[in-house]
Amino acid sequence: MTRPDDLSGYLDYNATTPLRRQARAAVAEALELAGNPSSVHGPGRAAWRRLSQAREQVAGLVGVGADQVIFTSGATEANNLAIAGSGRGRILVSAIEHDCVLAAAGPAAERIPVTADGIVDLAALEAALTAYDARNALVCVMLANNETGAIQPIAEVVELCRRRGAALLVDCAQAAGRIPLPPQVLSADYVTLSAHKFGGPKGVGALIKAPDAALDPLLVGGAHEGRLRAGTENLPGIVGMGAAAEAAATELTAFAALAALRDRLEAGLRAVCPDAPVYGAAAPRLPNTTSVGMPGVPAETQVMHFDLAGYAVSAGAACSSGKVTRSHVLDAMGAGPAAETAVRVSLGWTTTAEAIDGFVAQWAKLYTRRQRRAA
Ligand code: PLP
C-alpha cells in the first residue's frame, strides 16, 4: 500500500486535485487574518483587501470583472444558486450534466440528448428552444464533462440561446484552470467554478454572473457578496482559490501537455486489448481525462485492484464514488451495460510517464488474469 501523501499513483484529478503550493501558502497567511471582511475597522479592512485581491485573481482566470464574482462553497452551491435564482420557469439540461445540476433542475427539467461521443445534440437543443417559450428558459450545458472530458460546443450553444432569448448556465468546474476558456463563455449568464479542481482548497467555488443576469439569493441574512450569498466569507478558502487561479492560469500549457501522457495510456491499454472502449475518444476532450472500459471486469473490481497496486482512479461519477451507481453520462451516450466496466483515469501535474506505464502494467495484469479465468 502507498502512503496517503504519496501522489505518484494519484490519477483522480477530476475528483479533486492536490493543493497547489501557492494556495497552501495563501491559506496559511489568510488564517492569520483576524478581522471580518465586513467590519469597518483596520483588521476588517485588511481582511476585505485580501478578499478583494482573491476576487480579482478569480475574475482574471475567467476574464470577467471582479464585481461579477460571487464566492460560494463550491460548484454544487453555485449551480444550485444559478438554477434556483435565475427566475426562469423552464429548465433545459444536457443529459450529461453533473448530478448537482440535474438535481437542482428537478424532475420537470427537459433533458437534451448527447451523441455517442458525449457531445450535446445541438439540433435537439434548437428544436426544444424553438418549440415554445425560450424566453422563460434556462439552458444548462457544461463546458467539459467530468467523466469523459468531452468539451461541449459552447460557442454554438451561446449563439442558440442568444437567438432564442434563453438564459445560459455553463458549468466550468472541470474546465477552468485547465484549458483556456472559449471567449464565448463570457457571454453566458452564469458560469460556475470549483477551486479544488484546479489546485485550490476543497469547499470553495464561485458563481460568475453576467451584469444583466437575474439572480435571487438562496442564502439570505446579510449583505455579503453583493447581497447574493449571505454569510461571512470563507476567507482562507477564497484566498487559496485566488492563489490557485493565478497559478493555474500560468500553467495551462503544461496542462495541455498531459494529452501526451493520456494518449500513451490509451495506446498502452489498446495494445493489451484492442477492443477496450474509450468513451468520448472522438470528441474534443480535456487533455487529462480518459474513460476506458475493461471488457468483462466490473469497474468496482478494477478500482480495488488499482488501489491495492497504488493507483487511485474512479468508477462512474467521481463525486458519488463510494456508492457506485451506473453512470448517467455513459448511459446517455448509449454505452449500454459495457459502461459498468468503465473507469475514469484523470491526470494532473504530479503524473509521470512511469506512473502511466505502471498503471498500464496493472491494467494488463488484471485483464489477462480475468481472460485466463474466463477461458
Ligand atoms: N460540476 C462538475 C462538472 C463537477 O465535476 C463537480 C465535481 O466533481 C461539481 C460540479 C461539484 O463541484 P464541488 O465539489 O465544488 O461542489
What does this structure look like?
By secondary structure, the chain is an alpha/beta fold. It is 39% helix and 11% strand. It is built from 13 helices and ten strands. Strands 1-7-6-5-4-2-3 form a seven-stranded mixed sheet, sandwiched between helices. It is globular, with a radius of gyration of 21 Å. Pyridoxal-5'-phosphate binds next to helix 3.
Q: What does this entry show, briefly?
A:
The chain is 39% helix and 11% strand.
Total beta-strand segments: 10
Order of helices and strands: HHEHEHEHEHEEEHHHHEHEHEH
| Main sheet overview | 7 strands, mixed
Unreliable residue runs: none
Distance between the ends? 31 Å
| Small-molecule components bound | pyridoxal-5'-phosphate
Number of helices: 13
Strand content: 5-15%
- The order of strands across the largest sheet is 1-7-6-5-4-2-3
Shape type: globular
Spatial extent as radius of gyration: 21 Å
Helix content: 25-40%
Q: Quick check: average pLDDT?
A: 95
Structural class: alpha/beta
Oligomer: single chain
Break the fold down into its secondary structure elements and pairings:
Layout (H helix, E strand, L loop, with lengths): L20 H11 L10 H21 L6 E4 L2 H11 L4 E5 L4 H7 L4 E3 L9 H10 L5 E4 L13 H11 L2 E5 L18 E5 L10 E5 L14 H4 L7 H16 L1 H5 L1 H15 L16 E5 L5 H10 L5 E2 L12 H5 L9 E5 L6 H22 L1
Parallel strand pairs: 2-3, 2-4, 4-5, 5-6
Antiparallel strand pairs: 1-7, 6-7, 8-10, 9-10
Helix pairs in contact: 1-8, 2-8, 3-4, 5-6, 10-13
The structure holds pyridoxal-5'-phosphate.
